[in-house]
Specification:
Blueprint lengths: L7 E2 L9 E7 L6 E9 L1 E6 L2 E2 L14 E8 L8 E9 L1 H4 L20 E9 L5 E5 L5 E3 L3 E5 L3 E5 L6 E4 L1 E2 L6 E4 L5 E8 L2 E4 L5 E16 L5 E9 L1 E2 L5 E2 L9 E7 L4 E2 L6 E10 L10 E8 L2 E2 L1 E5 L2 H17 E2 L1 E2 L12 H14 E2 L1 H14 L25 H13 L2 H19 L4 H4 L27 H22 L3 H22 E2 L2 E2 L26 H10 L4 H18 L9 H9 L4 H9 L6 H6 L35 H8 L2 E3 L8 E4 L10 E7 L2 E10 L2 E8 L4 E4 L7 E3 L3 E4 L1
Parallel strand pairs: 6-15, 12-22, 34-38
Antiparallel strand pairs: 1-14, 2-7, 2-10, 3-6, 3-8, 4-5, 4-7, 8-9, 10-13, 11-12, 16-25, 17-18, 18-23, 18-24, 18-25, 19-22, 19-24, 20-21, 26-30, 27-35, 28-29, 31-32, 33-34, 35-36, 36-37, 37-40, 38-39
The structure holds beta-D-glucopyranose (BGC).
């Protein structure tokens, strides 16, 4: 904070969210007033009863080593010499159930053990005088009508309860987190959906359908004079009989209770959000329900949309919408895995997988910068990267997930071209590689064998109901070790760390050699007998599974990362194409899915990549679309053909990981690919791979230099291509059967 302040709290236990208030008497109306506010917990800041700013969940979610503060210009809210400052605080990220995943050595399951606030308010008067108000023990603690609030479980908001002074605040010396200015975009309200229909389910439940799965809340307008209680439960899907279904929320109660005072008109929760499309009305006052009074409101970080895409295939267009909705629903201050169940955590693997698509759809440079800052703060001394950032637990520090520390900064660099940021994250990237090097097998054999990993998470090739696909875990871990090292080598070169570049280059050669002798024989993948990554996984239930490297995922990784000898590339690609044909479907999970279409199209099998993209059989992207999905599902078969669910436990209908297919649609089908030596789309390749089944197709991306637009269509027996580039941009156009040309003049071109 520009002028630091003291933290205050109350040692009294209240049965509601506390409100810290200060009544300031000014000598006159100020010409300017600014406030700087932060909290342990999440807060809303009011001046003379008016909420300041439009952010939800300030001060945001960061590593517990730091806490953001927000700046407010409150001049407009002070009309006279009277100024009532109040800060309402909920448990939020710091103290709510969301951070209780790990029991800490002191027996507590949170990093903090109570709500605190900290604020500085500076008033300026017309004669140049200043008055500064700090949080201190003169602030008073009041009860509030927010009786309960938790991200997972919902909120109880009783407007009949009057605020009551309890005591004065006490100084709090326990907060050691560093105060830092707001780094990322704030979370705020965006789209609003009308209720589509109100219906009674076979079980007799009153259910409202808003038509779109999203993360946010329901806003209810209650006519004046209506008293009583409204209770709502949230769900993403209905069961096969059309009943309300929320068993997939794990322990999240996702319930909202409003007690009406007959006066208040619009009800919305303060410190919670839910992932939902449907609400069940569990209680309602004794008046007719008018669905026009219900709206669902989407909330997400205030990121700017940059990418656009549409094509002649409506199912692919819906898939694209679903990808955007899963991004919006999970870009709520940090990249989360899902917005509905009792997780909503910054799972690194998921973010790594989706990062490139995320950067096309939205400008996520600052969003990721904030999250990666926390990642580097949470990195352990030995280089381990916790599985979730902010680190509410350490997890396995596993391959693919931990590799996010290398892959995400790299993707962000390619998308936005900011070398400074790359330099900022380079130590974290290097340290992750060092961490891999102290793992079993790496020193002796240049392979990561053993360790605790998630494998090809949720792949279906190990059989129904298994969590880990069948690809050998040591192959995945070693392939990603290689990939991370090659990225570090590129980065060292860009940053002119030539010694490091040389070291990484030699290392990548050794890993490649080791990989080839362990996992390839006569140009085909094989099981590495010394691999024991699978031994650490309990061999029972979900994890007990057949292991093979003749899998779509293994082949896709080998081809994509360049782990084979050049002479074997075509054979391996053919093997992959045949495998897809004989399997008759995708069998990849979180690890293989982002790579399989690229591995096919980069090696002459673009038609097969399209077949997979356009397949409608379970499992496929369009299977979910046909099942009525409005977001991307966690499992290929979250909802099966017969209307049954994959499982009741781990079954999110809003997980963006498989939405990573958009980077293939944009980069290969539309053909727009940034060049490493032109990061930020200063230089890019336009090498479209058209297919009549989705023609006509167009896409665009807003870059720092301006908008790049491309399109292609099948017309009069041939393809026509269009491109428009802004100034300071160079494109290499590579069209089938023609020699490539380079264009660096702003304008529209047709071929
Ligand atoms: C999350 C995932 C995550 C995984 C780790 C799950 O519970 O929802 O998306 O990556 O755990 O395997």
């Amino acid at each position: 904070m520009p002028i630091p302040s003291k933290w205050i709290y109350t040692s009294k236990k209240l049965d509601c969210c506390p409100k810290f208030c200060k009544f300031v008497k000014l000598s006159e109306k100020p010409v300017e007033a600014k406030a700087y506010v932060s909290s342990i917990g999440v807060y809303d800041f009011f001046v003379n009863g008016k909420k300041q700013g439009n952010a939800f969940f300030a001060p945001g979610w960061t590593s517990c080593k730091r806490v953001q503060y927000q700046e407010y210009d409150i001049t407009e809210s002070i009309e006279s010499e009277k100024c009532e400052l109040s800060i309402l605080v909920g448990d939020g990220y710091a103290l709510g159930d969301i951070s209780s995943h790990h029991i800490r050595p002191n027996g507590s399951n949170h990093f903090f053990d109570h709500i605190s606030v900290c604020a500085t308010v500076i008033f300026k008067f017309k004669d140049g005088r200043k008055k500064i108000v700090h949080t201190d023990s003169s602030w008073e603690v009041f009860t509030s009508s927010v009786l309960y609030s938790d991200f997972y479980h919902g909120e109880i908001f009783d407007t009949t309860v009057k605020d009551e002074k309890i005591c004065n605040a006490e100084l709090d010396f326990s907060v050691t987190a560093k105060l830092v200015p707001q780094q990322g975009e704030i979370v705020c309200a965006h789209e609003k959906f009308e209720a589509k229909r109100l219906f009674v389910s076979p079980k007799g439940e009153k259910i409202i359908d808003f038509g779109q799965n999203l993360a946010g809340f329901v806003e209810i307008t209650v006519p004046l004079g209506v008293e009583g209680k409204i209770v709502l439960s949230h769900a993403e899907v209905l069961d096969k009989d059309g009943n309300f279904y929320n068993e997939n929320l794990q322990r999240a109660k996702a319930k909202i209770e409003y007690v009406l005072d007959g006066k208040t008109k619009v009800y919305a929760p303060h410190f919670t959000y839910q992932g939902f499309r449907y609400v069940r009305i569990d209680e309602y006052p004794n008046v007719e329900i008018n669905i026009d009074n219900f709206k669902s409101v989407a909330i997400y970080s205030n990121i700017k949309r940059t990418g656009e895409f549409s094509c002649g295939n409506q199912k692919i267009n819906r898939l694209y919408e679903n990808i955007l909705w899963s991004q919006k629903s999970n870009f709520i201050d940090i990249p989360t895995d899902c917005p509905q169940r009792s997780e909503r955590l910054g799972w690194t693997g998921d973010a790594q997988v989706f990062c490139r698509s995320a950067c096309i759809n939205y400008n996520v440079k600052t969003f990721f910068d904030k999250w990666l800052t926390d990642m580097s703060l949470e990195q352990k001394e030995n280089g381990a990267i916790p599985d979730v950032i902010p680190a509410v637990f350490l997890g396995k520090a596993s391959s693919v997930w931990g590799d996010a520390a290398v892959i995400c900064p790299w993707e962000i660099y390619l998308a936005y071209g900011d070398k400074q940021k790359l330099r900022k994250y380079y130590p974290m990237m290097k340290k992750w590689v060092k961490y891999i090097q102290i793992q079993k097998g790496v020193k002796e054999d240049n392979l990561w064998v053993g360790g605790n990993h998630y494998g090809d998470w949720l792949a279906l090739d190990a059989g129904e109901g298994k969590l880990l696909g069948s690809t050998q875990i040591d192959l995945i871990a070693s392939a990603f070790y290689f990939y991370s090292v090659t990225i570090c080598q590129n980065v060292a070169k860009i940053l002119k760390y030539y010694d490091d570049e040389k070291e990484f280059s030699l290392l990548s050669i050794s890993i490649k050699n080791a990989f080839q002798s362990a996992f390839l024989e006569n140009g085909k993948p094989k099981i590495y007998p010394k691999g024991d990554g699978d031994l650490n996984i309990p061999h029972n239930g979900d994890y007990d599974r057949p292991i093979s490297n003749n899998t779509q995922t293994a082949l896709a990784l080998i081809l994509r990362f360049g782990l084979c000898e050049d002479k074997d590339r075509q054979n391996l690609a053919e093997l992959l194409a045949r495998k897809v044909y004989s399997d008759g479907k995708l069998t990849t999970g979180f690890v293989g899915t982002p790579h399989i279409l690229h591995a096919l199209s980069e090696n002459g099998y673009c038609d097969i990549a399209y077949n997979l993209l356009l397949s409608e059989k379970n499992p496929s992207w369009l299977f979910a679309v046909n099942q009525g999905a409005t977001t991307i599902w966690e499992h290929w078969d979250s909802l099966k053909e017969n209307g049954e669910f994959w499982d009741k436990d781990m079954n999110s209908f809003n997980h963006y990981a498989y939405g990573s297919v958009f980077d293939w649609i944009f980069g290969v089908a539309m053909g727009v690919k940034v060049k490493e030596n032109g990061a930020g789309y200063k230089k890019f390749i336009f090498k479209p791979n058209p297919d009549k089944r989705i023609s006509p197709a167009k896409a665009s991306i807003e870059t720092k230099q301006g908008k790049i637009s491309v399109a292609w269509e099948w017309e009069n027996d041939s393809y026509k291509y269009y491109i428009e580039i802004p100034s300071k941009t160079e494109v290499e156009v590579i069209l089938e059967g023609k020699s490539s040309i380079v264009i660096n003049k702003k304008g529209k071109y047709a071929f």
